[in-house]
Amino acid sequence: MSEPNSPESTLDITVAIPAYNGAKRIPLVLDRLKRQIKTEGLHWEVLVVDNNSQDNTAEVIKQCQTQWSDEVSLRYCFEPRQGAAFARQKAVKEAKGELIGFLDDDNLPEENWLSEAVGFSHRYPHAGAFSGRIYGCYEVSPPEGFEKIKAFLAIRDHGSEVISFEADKLRLPPAASLVVRKQAWLECVPTQPALTGKLPGLFIQGDDYEPLLYIYKGNWEILYNPDLKTSHQIPPQRFEEKYLLTLARGCGLSTSQLSLITAVSWQKPIIVARIFLGSLRRILFHFIRSRSRLNQDLAANFEFEFALGSLLSPFYIRRW
User: Fold this and answer.
1) DSSP letters along 39-62, please?
2) Phi (first) and psi of residue 280, to 5 degrees
3) Which burial class, exposed, middle or buried, applies to 107 when counting CB atoms under 10 A from its CB (0-12, 13-18, 19+)?
4) Pick from 32, 51, 192, 291: CA 20 to 30 A from residue 318's CA?
5) Phi-psi category of 234—alpha, beta or left, where left has phi over 0 and alpha has psi -120 to 50?
6) Does the pTM of the predicted model rise above 0.85?
7) Which one of 3.90.550.10, 3.30.1310.20, 1.10.240.10, 3.40.30.10 gives the CATH number of domain 11-239?
8) pLDDT tens digit string along 108-146?
Protein backbone atom coordinates (compact mmCIF):
# COMPACT_ATOMS: atom_id res chain seq x y z
CA MET A 1 0.00 0.00 0.00
CA SER A 2 1.13 3.59 -0.38
CA GLU A 3 2.64 5.61 2.45
CA PRO A 4 1.23 9.13 2.10
CA ASN A 5 3.10 10.43 5.14
CA SER A 6 6.90 10.57 5.22
CA PRO A 7 8.74 9.42 8.40
CA GLU A 8 9.59 13.06 9.17
CA SER A 9 6.03 14.31 8.96
CA THR A 10 4.00 15.10 12.06
CA LEU A 11 0.37 14.03 12.11
CA ASP A 12 -2.47 15.16 14.31
CA ILE A 13 -3.04 11.72 15.80
CA THR A 14 -1.90 8.11 15.62
CA VAL A 15 -4.54 5.54 16.49
CA ALA A 16 -2.51 2.78 18.14
CA ILE A 17 -3.99 -0.70 18.57
CA PRO A 18 -1.93 -3.00 20.81
CA ALA A 19 -2.97 -6.54 19.87
CA TYR A 20 -2.36 -10.00 21.26
CA ASN A 21 -4.01 -12.80 19.29
CA GLY A 22 -6.46 -10.25 17.91
CA ALA A 23 -6.87 -11.61 14.40
CA LYS A 24 -10.62 -12.11 14.82
CA ARG A 25 -11.23 -8.82 16.63
CA ILE A 26 -9.08 -6.25 14.85
CA PRO A 27 -11.04 -6.14 11.55
CA LEU A 28 -14.11 -4.85 13.39
CA VAL A 29 -12.06 -2.11 15.06
CA LEU A 30 -10.54 -1.12 11.73
CA ASP A 31 -13.99 -1.06 10.15
CA ARG A 32 -15.11 1.43 12.81
CA LEU A 33 -12.08 3.58 12.05
CA LYS A 34 -12.90 3.53 8.34
CA ARG A 35 -16.30 5.02 9.14
CA GLN A 36 -15.07 7.97 11.20
CA ILE A 37 -16.76 11.27 10.39
CA LYS A 38 -15.60 14.90 10.47
CA THR A 39 -12.05 13.91 9.56
CA GLU A 40 -11.70 16.52 6.83
CA GLY A 41 -8.47 18.40 7.46
CA LEU A 42 -7.20 15.85 9.98
CA HIS A 43 -3.91 14.11 9.36
CA TRP A 44 -3.89 10.71 10.99
CA GLU A 45 -2.73 7.12 10.79
CA VAL A 46 -3.48 3.72 12.28
CA LEU A 47 -0.71 1.65 13.86
CA VAL A 48 -1.25 -1.97 14.92
CA VAL A 49 1.32 -3.21 17.45
CA ASP A 50 1.45 -7.00 17.36
CA ASN A 51 2.45 -7.96 20.92
CA ASN A 52 3.98 -11.36 20.12
CA SER A 53 0.70 -12.87 18.91
CA GLN A 54 0.54 -16.61 18.33
CA ASP A 55 -2.29 -16.39 15.79
CA ASN A 56 -2.35 -14.91 12.28
CA THR A 57 -2.65 -11.26 13.33
CA ALA A 58 0.14 -10.24 10.94
CA GLU A 59 -1.57 -11.87 7.96
CA VAL A 60 -4.90 -10.28 8.84
CA ILE A 61 -3.36 -6.81 8.94
CA LYS A 62 -1.60 -7.42 5.65
CA GLN A 63 -4.94 -8.32 4.08
CA CYS A 64 -6.63 -5.26 5.62
CA GLN A 65 -3.92 -3.04 4.16
CA THR A 66 -4.88 -4.10 0.64
CA GLN A 67 -8.40 -2.78 1.28
CA TRP A 68 -7.36 0.37 3.13
CA SER A 69 -7.57 3.95 1.93
CA ASP A 70 -4.43 5.46 0.41
CA GLU A 71 -5.23 8.72 2.20
CA VAL A 72 -4.52 7.25 5.68
CA SER A 73 -1.65 4.93 6.58
CA LEU A 74 -2.38 1.56 8.16
CA ARG A 75 0.94 0.41 9.59
CA TYR A 76 2.01 -2.78 11.35
CA CYS A 77 4.88 -3.35 13.77
CA PHE A 78 5.93 -6.23 16.00
CA GLU A 79 6.81 -6.06 19.70
CA PRO A 80 8.36 -9.34 20.91
CA ARG A 81 8.37 -8.44 24.62
CA GLN A 82 5.13 -9.80 26.04
CA GLY A 83 3.02 -7.34 27.98
CA ALA A 84 0.70 -4.46 27.17
CA ALA A 85 3.10 -1.91 28.66
CA PHE A 86 5.79 -2.91 26.14
CA ALA A 87 3.26 -2.68 23.30
CA ARG A 88 2.35 0.86 24.32
CA GLN A 89 6.00 1.87 24.56
CA LYS A 90 6.50 0.51 21.04
CA ALA A 91 3.48 2.48 19.84
CA VAL A 92 4.85 5.72 21.28
CA LYS A 93 8.22 5.09 19.62
CA GLU A 94 6.67 4.36 16.23
CA ALA A 95 3.83 6.91 16.25
CA LYS A 96 3.99 9.93 13.95
CA GLY A 97 1.10 11.74 15.60
CA GLU A 98 1.24 14.53 18.16
CA LEU A 99 -1.53 12.59 19.90
CA ILE A 100 -1.66 8.83 20.38
CA GLY A 101 -5.13 7.36 20.74
CA PHE A 102 -4.94 3.88 22.24
CA LEU A 103 -7.67 1.43 21.33
CA ASP A 104 -7.51 -2.16 22.54
CA ASP A 105 -8.40 -4.72 19.91
CA ASP A 106 -11.80 -5.16 21.60
CA ASN A 107 -12.64 -1.42 21.74
CA LEU A 108 -15.15 -0.08 19.21
CA PRO A 109 -14.99 3.70 18.82
CA GLU A 110 -18.04 5.78 17.99
CA GLU A 111 -18.02 7.49 14.60
CA ASN A 112 -16.80 10.86 15.93
CA TRP A 113 -14.11 9.41 18.23
CA LEU A 114 -11.22 10.67 16.15
CA SER A 115 -12.47 14.22 15.61
CA GLU A 116 -13.54 14.47 19.24
CA ALA A 117 -10.11 13.38 20.46
CA VAL A 118 -8.27 15.96 18.37
CA GLY A 119 -10.76 18.73 19.12
CA PHE A 120 -10.62 18.11 22.87
CA SER A 121 -6.82 18.22 22.84
CA HIS A 122 -6.98 21.70 21.30
CA ARG A 123 -9.51 22.91 23.86
CA TYR A 124 -7.49 21.54 26.78
CA PRO A 125 -3.81 22.02 25.88
CA HIS A 126 -2.68 21.20 29.44
CA ALA A 127 -4.18 17.71 29.27
CA GLY A 128 -1.36 15.22 29.01
CA ALA A 129 -3.90 12.42 28.65
CA PHE A 130 -7.65 11.99 28.59
CA SER A 131 -10.26 9.28 28.33
CA GLY A 132 -14.02 9.13 27.94
CA ARG A 133 -17.11 7.00 28.37
CA ILE A 134 -16.64 3.29 27.84
CA TYR A 135 -19.81 1.23 27.52
CA GLY A 136 -19.99 -2.51 28.05
CA CYS A 137 -20.97 -4.63 25.04
CA TYR A 138 -21.84 -8.00 26.55
CA GLU A 139 -22.15 -11.27 24.66
CA VAL A 140 -24.02 -12.74 27.63
CA SER A 141 -25.77 -11.16 30.60
CA PRO A 142 -23.38 -10.08 33.39
CA PRO A 143 -23.55 -12.01 36.68
CA GLU A 144 -25.33 -10.62 39.71
CA GLY A 145 -23.20 -8.05 41.49
CA PHE A 146 -21.20 -7.14 38.37
CA GLU A 147 -22.43 -3.53 38.42
CA LYS A 148 -20.29 -2.88 41.51
CA ILE A 149 -17.06 -4.08 39.92
CA LYS A 150 -17.52 -3.22 36.21
CA ALA A 151 -14.95 -0.40 36.38
CA PHE A 152 -12.25 -3.05 36.74
CA LEU A 153 -13.18 -4.29 33.25
CA ALA A 154 -12.63 -0.80 31.79
CA ILE A 155 -16.32 0.14 31.75
CA ARG A 156 -16.54 3.78 32.82
CA ASP A 157 -19.04 6.62 32.84
CA HIS A 158 -18.28 9.64 35.01
CA GLY A 159 -21.19 11.76 33.88
CA SER A 160 -21.69 14.52 31.33
CA GLU A 161 -19.12 17.08 32.51
CA VAL A 162 -15.38 17.33 31.92
CA ILE A 163 -13.55 16.38 35.11
CA SER A 164 -9.96 16.06 36.26
CA PHE A 165 -9.00 12.62 37.55
CA GLU A 166 -7.62 12.40 41.09
CA ALA A 167 -4.36 10.72 40.22
CA ASP A 168 -2.94 11.10 43.73
CA LYS A 169 -5.78 8.82 44.91
CA LEU A 170 -5.18 6.34 42.05
CA ARG A 171 -8.46 7.40 40.44
CA LEU A 172 -7.49 7.19 36.80
CA PRO A 173 -8.86 5.99 33.46
CA PRO A 174 -7.91 2.66 31.87
CA ALA A 175 -5.60 2.45 28.87
CA ALA A 176 -8.51 1.33 26.70
CA SER A 177 -9.71 4.34 24.69
CA LEU A 178 -7.03 6.57 26.17
CA VAL A 179 -5.56 9.53 24.30
CA VAL A 180 -2.12 10.77 25.31
CA ARG A 181 -0.05 13.69 24.16
CA LYS A 182 3.17 12.23 22.79
CA GLN A 183 5.19 15.13 24.18
CA ALA A 184 3.90 14.40 27.70
CA TRP A 185 4.72 10.70 27.43
CA LEU A 186 8.25 11.28 26.12
CA GLU A 187 8.96 13.91 28.75
CA CYS A 188 7.66 11.95 31.73
CA VAL A 189 7.31 8.19 31.26
CA PRO A 190 10.33 5.87 31.84
CA THR A 191 11.21 3.71 28.86
CA GLN A 192 11.36 0.62 31.10
CA PRO A 193 8.00 0.00 32.83
CA ALA A 194 7.88 -1.57 36.29
CA LEU A 195 4.41 -2.99 35.61
CA THR A 196 4.17 -4.73 32.26
CA GLY A 197 0.65 -6.16 32.14
CA LYS A 198 -0.83 -9.64 32.21
CA LEU A 199 1.71 -12.38 31.54
CA PRO A 200 1.46 -16.19 31.71
CA GLY A 201 1.69 -17.11 35.38
CA LEU A 202 1.96 -13.47 36.47
CA PHE A 203 -1.17 -11.38 36.77
CA ILE A 204 -0.13 -8.05 38.26
CA GLN A 205 -2.16 -5.15 36.94
CA GLY A 206 -1.44 -1.42 37.09
CA ASP A 207 0.24 -1.13 33.69
CA ASP A 208 -2.64 1.17 32.64
CA TYR A 209 -2.02 3.57 35.49
CA GLU A 210 1.78 3.63 35.66
CA PRO A 211 2.42 5.96 32.67
CA LEU A 212 -0.48 8.21 33.65
CA LEU A 213 0.99 8.71 37.12
CA TYR A 214 4.30 9.76 35.61
CA ILE A 215 2.50 12.17 33.27
CA TYR A 216 0.60 13.59 36.25
CA LYS A 217 3.86 13.86 38.18
CA GLY A 218 5.17 15.93 35.27
CA ASN A 219 2.43 18.52 35.95
CA TRP A 220 0.12 17.51 33.12
CA GLU A 221 -3.61 17.13 33.74
CA ILE A 222 -5.44 13.81 33.27
CA LEU A 223 -8.99 14.60 32.12
CA TYR A 224 -12.30 12.92 31.38
CA ASN A 225 -14.07 13.83 28.15
CA PRO A 226 -17.71 12.67 28.23
CA ASP A 227 -18.06 13.03 24.45
CA LEU A 228 -15.27 10.55 23.68
CA LYS A 229 -17.19 7.26 23.52
CA THR A 230 -16.31 3.63 22.86
CA SER A 231 -17.83 0.21 23.48
CA HIS A 232 -15.83 -2.54 25.15
CA GLN A 233 -16.63 -6.04 23.92
CA ILE A 234 -16.83 -8.43 26.87
CA PRO A 235 -16.80 -12.17 26.03
CA PRO A 236 -18.42 -14.72 28.38
CA GLN A 237 -15.11 -15.89 29.86
CA ARG A 238 -14.56 -12.44 31.38
CA PHE A 239 -17.54 -13.12 33.64
CA GLU A 240 -16.15 -16.35 35.03
CA GLU A 241 -15.55 -16.08 38.75
CA LYS A 242 -11.99 -17.40 38.52
CA TYR A 243 -11.04 -14.70 36.01
CA LEU A 244 -12.68 -11.90 37.98
CA LEU A 245 -11.07 -12.88 41.29
CA THR A 246 -7.67 -13.22 39.62
CA LEU A 247 -8.20 -9.74 38.18
CA ALA A 248 -9.07 -8.39 41.63
CA ARG A 249 -5.94 -9.89 43.17
CA GLY A 250 -3.79 -8.57 40.29
CA CYS A 251 -5.14 -5.04 40.70
CA GLY A 252 -4.44 -5.15 44.40
CA LEU A 253 -0.87 -6.37 43.89
CA SER A 254 0.01 -3.17 42.01
CA THR A 255 -1.16 -0.81 44.78
CA SER A 256 2.17 -0.18 46.49
CA GLN A 257 4.15 0.22 43.27
CA LEU A 258 1.67 2.74 41.90
CA SER A 259 1.45 4.68 45.15
CA LEU A 260 5.21 5.26 45.21
CA ILE A 261 5.38 6.95 41.81
CA THR A 262 4.22 10.39 42.93
CA ALA A 263 5.68 10.18 46.45
CA VAL A 264 8.90 11.83 47.64
CA SER A 265 11.60 9.59 49.10
CA TRP A 266 10.91 10.10 52.79
CA GLN A 267 7.21 9.36 52.32
CA LYS A 268 7.67 5.97 50.65
CA PRO A 269 8.23 3.72 53.71
CA ILE A 270 5.28 5.39 55.43
CA ILE A 271 3.04 4.86 52.40
CA VAL A 272 3.95 1.18 52.13
CA ALA A 273 3.31 0.64 55.85
CA ARG A 274 -0.07 2.38 55.59
CA ILE A 275 -1.06 0.24 52.62
CA PHE A 276 -0.13 -2.96 54.45
CA LEU A 277 -1.87 -2.05 57.70
CA GLY A 278 -4.89 -0.52 55.97
CA SER A 279 -5.34 -3.61 53.80
CA LEU A 280 -5.05 -5.88 56.83
CA ARG A 281 -7.72 -3.87 58.61
CA ARG A 282 -10.02 -4.02 55.58
CA ILE A 283 -9.56 -7.77 55.27
CA LEU A 284 -10.44 -8.37 58.92
CA PHE A 285 -13.41 -6.01 58.82
CA HIS A 286 -14.59 -7.43 55.53
CA PHE A 287 -14.32 -10.99 56.79
CA ILE A 288 -16.36 -10.19 59.90
CA ARG A 289 -18.98 -8.21 57.98
CA SER A 290 -19.31 -10.43 54.90
CA ARG A 291 -18.26 -13.84 56.20
CA SER A 292 -21.64 -15.38 55.46
CA ARG A 293 -21.70 -13.98 51.89
CA LEU A 294 -18.15 -14.69 50.71
CA ASN A 295 -19.12 -17.80 48.78
CA GLN A 296 -22.25 -16.32 47.20
CA ASP A 297 -21.57 -12.59 46.67
CA LEU A 298 -19.35 -11.81 43.66
CA ALA A 299 -18.73 -8.21 44.71
CA ALA A 300 -17.80 -9.26 48.26
CA ASN A 301 -15.41 -11.90 46.96
CA PHE A 302 -13.89 -9.36 44.56
CA GLU A 303 -13.39 -6.78 47.30
CA PHE A 304 -11.74 -9.40 49.52
CA GLU A 305 -9.30 -10.50 46.80
CA PHE A 306 -8.42 -6.89 46.00
CA ALA A 307 -7.67 -6.17 49.65
CA LEU A 308 -5.59 -9.34 49.89
CA GLY A 309 -3.60 -8.28 46.84
CA SER A 310 -3.03 -4.83 48.36
CA LEU A 311 -1.81 -6.47 51.58
CA LEU A 312 0.77 -8.42 49.57
CA SER A 313 1.67 -5.56 47.24
CA PRO A 314 4.70 -4.31 49.22
CA PHE A 315 6.41 -7.59 48.36
CA TYR A 316 5.94 -6.94 44.63
CA ILE A 317 7.59 -3.52 44.46
CA ARG A 318 10.08 -3.47 41.60
CA ARG A 319 11.09 0.22 41.56
CA TRP A 320 11.54 2.57 44.49
Assistant:
1) -TT--EEEEEEE-S-SSSHHHHHH
2) -60, -40
3) buried
4) 51
5) beta
6) yes
7) 3.90.550.10
8) 999 999 999 999 999 999 999 999 999 999 999 999 999
